[in-house]
Amino acid sequence: MTAITETHRPNLPKGTSTASRAHRLAERGVDTKLLMLLPAIVFALVLFVYPFSYGIGLTFQPLPEIQDKFGGGIFANYVAFFKDPFIFDSVWITMRLALPVALFNVIVSIPIAFKLRHKFRGKRFMSTLLVLPITLGTVLTAQGLLIFAGRQGWLNRFLMETGIISSPLPLVNNYLGVVFSLVISGFPFAYLLISSYLSGIDPSLEAAAKTLGANWKQRFTKVTLPLLAPGLATTFILTFVLAFSVFPSARLVGDPLGGTRVMALMAYRSFAEQINYSMASTIAIMMGVVELIVIAIVLLGRSFLYKGSTGGKG
Amino acid sequence: MSLTASAFDTLELKDVGRSFGGREALADLNLTIRAGEFIALLGPSGCGKSTALNCLAGLLPLTHGEILIDGKRIDVLPSEKRDFGMVFQNYALFPHLSVAKNVAFGLEVRGVAKAEIKRRVSEAIALVKLEEHAKKLPGQLSGGQQQRVAIARAVVLEPRIVLMDEPLSNLDAKLRLDMRTEIRRLHQSLGLTTVYVTHDQEEALSLADRLVVLREGRVQQIGTPTELHNNPANWHVADFMGYRNLLDMELTEVSGSEARVSGHGLSLAATLAQPAKPGDTVRMAMRPHDLNVVNDHTVTTGRNVFTATVGVVEYQGREFAVEVTTSTGQRLFVHAETAPRVGEEVTLVLDPARALVYQQNLDAGVSEEEREHQELAEVGS
Amino acid sequence: MSSHTAQHDAAATEVVNIAENRNRGKLPPGEKPLVASPGTWFVWAGVAVFFIFLFGIISSVVVDSFGKGWFTTWLPQEFTVSWYQSAWTRFDLTHILGVTLVVAFVVVVVSILVGVPAAYMLARRNFPLKRLVMVLFLLPILIPPITFGIPLATVMYNFGLGRTLIAVILVNLVPSIPFVIITMTPFIEQINPSIENAARMCGASMRQVFVRVLTPLLIPGILAAGILILVRTVGMFELTFLVSGPQSDTLVVAIYRAMTSAGGSEARALVSSMGVIYTAMMLIILIIALRFINPTQLVAQVKESRED
């Protein structure tokens, strides 16, 4: 109401907004309803931003023994991170696990999502089964893999009795074990994401391509794939994040001192076993940095793709 | 213009049918389309017209019948091999490709040489007057422009047939009229055989050479716009063709095609459009235009003159659409040259030749054989 | 009657036609071939291998938890439920399950109460610094839990909250609140804002709009998000592990500790029996959840195919 009365005042200089201050703020989207955001922001600041900055501060307060060993003053933790091969190698070890697993999950999900996108009997049942591993959790998957794929497990026993192999395959307590565990927890997730992206593409686009004479290969490469690509990039990022922060499975089904000595494990070791909070924070934050670099690269690639509406409801 | 007419003589649909899990969406569609014809499939939503189009396009497999071009079966071909062009209701433009790329799509997948693609694409874009927008993405265009891209994309391939699935239904009224003219102009200049699906009778009448009216998956009538407009085959087609007044009456006298019906406090002379015998309950269909308000009070007696009370008056530019109520409370839509007052009693004149009498039963008109069946059944019951 | 027979004949010829087409390798479009293509085989083989692993893993654990003396045979020598009894008393599972459920429940309720209004604002409004706020909510989901978990745990220990139930709840809220916001924002965006405007034109206050109009529309989304948070929180190992102690361990952490305890881990079957309890709990949650939602709906609304 105030705004209306004020606009009728004749003797204000031209160009000055005659609306009240509250209205001008409201015009920019600022009013009391914005308070609904407040609790979430407070939580984020207190539980995420503050500890995170505190952690960053902590990385510049290295323990004396680290300073003595690696030098570098307040940067000693970072010097140690890059100079100590036992720590720095974990970067490659983590990448060697997370990148192939994330790629595998995405690439294998595409044809499966494609084949299963039409309605068929038992589709809902299958989707339900596919969600199952999400509920198993890493610890239980690890325990199951140790028993199922271990030297005495059913898998090796079956392969030996059918004569396919002569001695048990080393499938757990190594790199392969962690890969299995990451695929089992990551693949259903990738499948569900990709099939929902796929269902967001208007089916009449493919019908149009069909009537224009495109065979299924051309329809896939020229229509569906370009429309799906941003979704694939997002799925890759999310499965990569899952695989990158792998921790329990690397410890339980992997080889925690060798082939699966991932960054998360190193950080936890500093934190809980060596009680070196500043080094632990350093490794943890470097872990975040490495991950964000990978994500940034994928996002950069994604920015070249078409990302607008794909015609569907999704 | 290098776009040329279709290279075939006739396209034949024989007993074409499609059912979805036991429900027949389309049955016994028989139609022969000559090259260069503009055919409209007309009917309310759910009548099977889109099913028919999708079957023709190969997007839906047939459950019955066959489709032949010059005697050769094509219903066994997948849609990409049929050489048909299709314009979708939602246009189905590829959102990630520019206008030019959208139009070029079909040529590219056929492996046409680059230079030729360029030439034909720019021709097609010029044809629909979108030269300035060639580099834009579909999302940046207005509805009418998107529509024109969809048409260009379909005709650039010089398809044997262009299929259009309610292409104008997403446009506003004015644009719809413009695009209608545009489509007619394109058809006339390119001579492309076109099958056009719509629920708008006005659109179908103005565009098509022949119309196919469908109801519940079955053909009701096939004919030219004039035939359908003047002689609908049954009351459903009549209803669809703008015969807004449908009255259930008793048939009292029949002589040749002339008939007398009574009911609703009226006794009127009419014309038999379907065979019926005295005593039958029939449905009489009249256009508002054939039911005129007369100001000349000298014509107060004579055949087919009666009075009614004016209820609603709508101005329609030069003339008036009027809703009146007869003495027995029956509402009628009539036509007036000058505006009557609401509540006024007016005199109406009906041309007996334009009051068409139909059987109530819709399936009656389908075939002689079936009518016999029905009559037998009715006698039995 | 004659027309009926004719129809039957037509149907019969059609069947013959289809069979002939199939023999010639020419199928009417949409007609499925009897012999699947290599691509189809690949897909089904992949799915089959996945399910073999999945069921192998689950049933191994189940058999192990009921078995006695399972070393070099297909199945254990005898079956028993004693592992469950000893696991229950030894690890005080009543307490652990109680902790797990309390933590999960509190986290779900708090994240929805805090997250949904924020998601609403992000979906409906533009305001200064909106992008920054979005990034603030995205980071806890993208950054590995260990990365912020270790500094967060350090702060918790400094404040004397280490190993308490409060700490476990708080750390789990860090990714959960943003998760609710990120999943609910697109869900709210797809609700037509004119519905709210219509409610306001009918004279409803903002609070009434929320309670009477939006909440019923948001229920499916809230349920989906809530169930995902529940599953995530019960399964969340990394963050809980960093701050929990003997009195505040959730079930996953307890299992992990049993598997890795210093001085030789616990008997394998003991761990397996705890694993089965964990899976059973998750399955119950999942079954309840699937009564309300379709898994593919979690990310986007599914458009059904044209051919229906």
UniProtKB/TrEMBL annotation, chain A:
The keyword Transmembrane helix applies. The chain crosses the membrane at residues 34-53, 91-114, 126-150, 175-194, 227-247, 275-300. It is a multi-pass membrane protein. GO terms for cellular component: plasma membrane. Residues 91-298 form the ABC transmembrane type-1 domain. It is found in: Cell membrane. Keywords: Cell membrane, Membrane, Transmembrane, Transmembrane helix, Transport. SUPFAM superfamilies: MetI-like. It comes from the Bacteria. GO terms for biological process: transmembrane transport. The keyword Phosphoprotein does not apply. InterPro entries: MetI-like, MetI-like_sf. Its main location: membrane. Belongs to the binding-protein-dependent transport system permease family. CysTW subfamily. This is Sugar ABC transporter permease. The lineage of its organism: Bacteria, Bacillati, Actinomycetota, Actinomycetes, Micrococcales.
Automatic annotation (TrEMBL), chain B:
Residues 11-241 form the ABC transporter domain. The keyword Transmembrane helix does not apply. It comes from the Bacteria. InterPro entries: AAA+_ATPase (IPR003593), ABC_SmlMolc_Importer (IPR050093), ABC_transporter-like_ATP-bd (IPR003439), ABC_transporter-like_CS (IPR017871), Mo/tungstate-bd_C_term_dom (IPR008995), NA-bd_OB-fold (IPR012340), P-loop_NTPase (IPR027417), Transp-assoc_OB_typ2 (IPR013611). GO terms for cellular component: ATP-binding cassette (ABC) transporter complex. SUPFAM superfamilies: MOP-like, P-loop containing nucleoside triphosphate hydrolases. The keyword Transport applies. Keywords: ATP-binding, Nucleotide-binding, Transport. Gene3D superfamilies: 2.40.50.100, Nucleic acid-binding proteins, P-loop containing nucleotide triphosphate hydrolases. One of its GO terms (molecular function) is ATP binding. This is ABC transporter ATP-binding protein. The lineage of its organism: Bacteria, Bacillati, Actinomycetota, Actinomycetes, Micrococcales.
UniProtKB/TrEMBL annotation, chain C:
Residues 97-289 form the ABC transmembrane type-1 domain. InterPro entries: MetI-like, MetI-like_sf. It is a multi-pass membrane protein. It comes from the Bacteria. The chain crosses the membrane at residues 41-63, 96-120, 132-153, 165-188, 209-231, 269-293. One of its GO terms (cellular component) is plasma membrane. Gene3D superfamilies: MetI-like. GO terms for biological process: transmembrane transport. Keywords: Cell inner membrane, Cell membrane, Membrane, Transmembrane, Transmembrane helix, Transport. It is found in: Cell inner membrane; Cell membrane. PANTHER family: INNER MEMBRANE ABC TRANSPORTER PERMEASE PROTEIN YDCV. Belongs to the binding-protein-dependent transport system permease family. This is ABC transporter permease subunit. It comes from Cryobacterium tepidiphilum.
